[in-house]
Amino acid sequence: MRFAGHALLLLWAGCAFAQNVETISSETLAAVPVPGATHDLRIAAHMFEGTHWNTAQARTALSAAGALFAQCGIAVAIDLHVLRTPRRFRYLYTQDSRDLLKTLAPRKPALFLVEDTRNQPAYDAEAVGRANARSRPEMVDTVWITFTTRDLPVVIAHEIAHVLADSGAHSRELGNLMNEDTDPGNTRLSPAQCEALRTRGEANTLLAPRVVKP
Prior knowledge:
This protein has 214 residues and is α/β, with parallel strands linked by helices. The chain contains 5 helices and 9 strands, in the order αββαββαββββααβ.
């Protein structure tokens, strides 16, 4: 009986935890038309009630970031969700973020606009691809952007590209999106980089290939 009671307590605790993560609004941002697109990318973006982020800021940055993938023939659609959660989930911290993802089970790739990071070393933005998710599998194919991040569209696209290519590689080419120093002028992707995004993204089921009708 003591064991059964303990199991019931754990079940109740799990239900209570799940109820603490609530989606309070959702919208789909208008996709930028990409003539001749070969692939579709749908990003599940999330922001949190009670942070400094606002929906107008998020819409502008996410839409501009998505448009940068048109050069690779990738059409991007973004679903923006606003979450009501305990305060600890509003920050990037591996232990807490893993708990959030276990409960939320978002569509991947998933992007989170968080208040700040509690991880060390502290980065303004972080991408978790297949290659760097061995110790945190729940966080695979996710991107985390803190409120203090500058050049938002470039940074968001840069981190999403890391996830799609499943690579942490950077470019030294001036004006390249994957330059380690994100800058408003760093927006271009080379043909080889685009091919890597499409190939790896499709292989990892993050990109959906378009069927070309004869």
